[in-house]
Specification:
The protein has 290 residues and is of the alpha/beta class. The protein is built from nine helices and 13 strands. A hairpin with a 2-residue loop joins strand 11 and strand 12. It comes from Streptomyces siamensis.
């Protein structure tokens, strides 16, 4: 992994918002920023004519202007840019393997724009070895300075969401923001009860205290590592996706973990990451579990 942030650009309003977000984040973290545009020549997809050379020229000009807009805005930021031609999934996954985070523009509601269309976007998000941050076209920088929090979902045991918690705390420390760590829980079905689980719940004082204790235990190493980051523990009855989406209005960034589920039709992400990625109106970071 290279110590940099990478952003995909395609000239759309969504990718311009992603570019602005990535530029601010790179400055905060003191990291260089890499711009990439991925394209594959398909004459039947070109609207209004043009040939391969025309598109190559347009791509080079677009990337150069995007890089120039960043260096004009952030004079000390180190920016590199490259146009890549070939299969989008393979090239973007290769970029993801060599960066701290991959930032992409998103329309939300399931549509990833530009070089990420449908299953391509889903596959990149499901298989990227680094966090993938999705930014909407209507994202605005003032939201980052309006007292909003870094909201992060936690589930399972102490180590299950460690990667997502780590990304959330690192981002909060770089921004001087607070973290809201969220653990959603639901009543277990009757058949799931066992003498062992009943004893654990009894010792914890009930279901909700048990969930609070599990969240506190998962947060402990990150509180110790980032003592200056204010933390709110949020435990709520409900599905993970519903609880997190109910908090999107107070989030400057929402962080969720994901495990890729492989099937005959390709990779897909879990239901919580899927819901947040498609419906949250703030930037979303999808972080692979370690």
């Amino acid at each position: 992994m290279t110590d940099r942030i990478t952003v995909g650009v395609d000239g759309s309003p969504e990718s311009r918002a992603a570019l602005a977000w990535a530029g601010r984040e790179a400055v905060r973290r003191g990291l260089p920023l890499r711009l990439v545009h991925v394209w594959h020549w398909a004459p039947h997809d070109v609207i209004g004519g043009g040939d391969r050379e025309d598109h190559a020229r347009w791509a080079q000009d677009m990337v150069r202007e995007a890089a120039s807009s960043l260096t004009d805005r952030h004079s000390g930021l180190e920016v590199t840019a490259e146009v890549l031609e070939g299969a989008a999934v393979e090239l973007l996954l290769a970029e993801a393997a060599a960066t701290r985070a991959l930032v992409l523009g998103s329309r939300g509601y399931g549509t990833i724009v530009g070089f990420l269309l449908g299953s391509v976007g889903q596959q990149v998000i499901a298989e990227a070895p680094c966090p993938v941050v999705l930014v909407r076209a209507d994202d605005h920088a003032p939201a980052e300075a309006a007292g909003r929090e870094i909201v992060v979902g936690q589930q399972g045991g102490r180590d299950d969401s460690a990667a997502a918690l780590g990304f959330a705390f690192e981002t909060a420390a770089a921004r001087g923001a607070a973290v809201r760590a969220v653990r959603a829980w639901s009543l277990p079905p009757v058949f799931a009860y066992s003498p062992g689980s009943l004893k654990m719940l009894d010792e914890a004082g009930g279901l909700e205290p048990y969930e609070r204790e599990a969240l506190a235990e998962a947060l402990q190493p990150w509180r110790e590592r980032f003592p200056g980051v204010p933390v709110t523990q949020h435990v709520e009855l409900g599905s993970g996706g519903q609880v997190l989406l109910s908090l999107a209005g107070r989030a400057q960034l929402m962080v969720v973990g994901r495990r890729a589920h492989r099937s005959a039709v390709g990779s897909r992400i879990g239901s919580v990451a899927h819901a947040v990625m498609h419906h949250a109106d703030c930037p979303v970071a999808v972080v692979p579990h370690a």
